[in-house]
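When time allows, look over one protein, given below as sequence and tokens. The question is which stretches look regular and which look disordered:
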Amino acid sequence: MSSFIEATQVKAIGSHSYSGFFPEEWCIGSVPHGGYVTSCIQATASLHFSTTLKAQAQPHVMTVYLTFLRRTSTGPATFTVKDVKLGRQTSTIHISLTQGSGREELVGYVTHTNMATETGISLNTGWSLLPAPYPAKIPRLRTNHDEHWRNYSEMPFLKFRKASAQIDIFIPRAGQLGLSMVDEWIRFKNGQKFTPDSLGYVADSFPQIVESFREHAQDSIPWQHRKGRLWYPTVILNLEIKKVLPPAGVEWLFVRVRAKQIKNGRMDLEVVILDDVGELVALSQHVCLIVGADRNLAKRREVAGNGDSKL
């Protein structure tokens, strides 16, 4: 089984092209996990800015904006980079992910900067999470003895959600603070630390909000969707990094996820990531679909003209 570091490793095959490999253990069903793929995009951008664009001296991802066009698949992947805008404070590149016979499955933009040299106005906005999450004591989390948090080992369909099995998830003992909200503390099961390039995966790793409705408010779920596996493919994912994690990484991160509307098989997600001292690390916004797991596992249909497959 590959570690996160191994699974997100990319290699240069040219000044603007890179190769990677998506293993099965980082999938949801048969499709590589969207957050994991996002981290592969981050890793590609980081390598590009440390080699081809080293002269820019902009090592830190500031923003990621991705559109998932089609289902990705396990196996080799190629990342093609185009330098869009190279500036003194920020630089933006376009990345395209292709697999198989050259089908384009994801496109997006990544903006880099140097957060160590940033200057400018800073103001205290007074922002905080509302409602406030339950307090946590990290030493007691490690032994699953925290007063307010417990290990969440009963995630539905965990064998289907293999990528979600790579982390320990801790949820409130008293239950979530709302049906459309998820609070969690997470860490890698293998002891690996969360680094900047892992934030894409973190931003897409949590108990699904729809599953909370299925468990606690089943009457609000149409009868045909009350049981069985569902899949929540990402259509668009945005990520903004607010704080650079240390090079050695951190063991724990706190994540809050909220949905504002779940309607007609589509939902939005707002994700806030904090470190273990409560500082804001990253923000993320998602647009997701809600479909049956059969859509995930179905054989890919060839589309006349370019060999692509629809979702």
Remarks:
- The radius of gyration is 19 Å.
- The chain has a mean pLDDT of 93.
- The first strand starts at residue 11 and ends at 14.
- The longest helix spans residues 34-50.
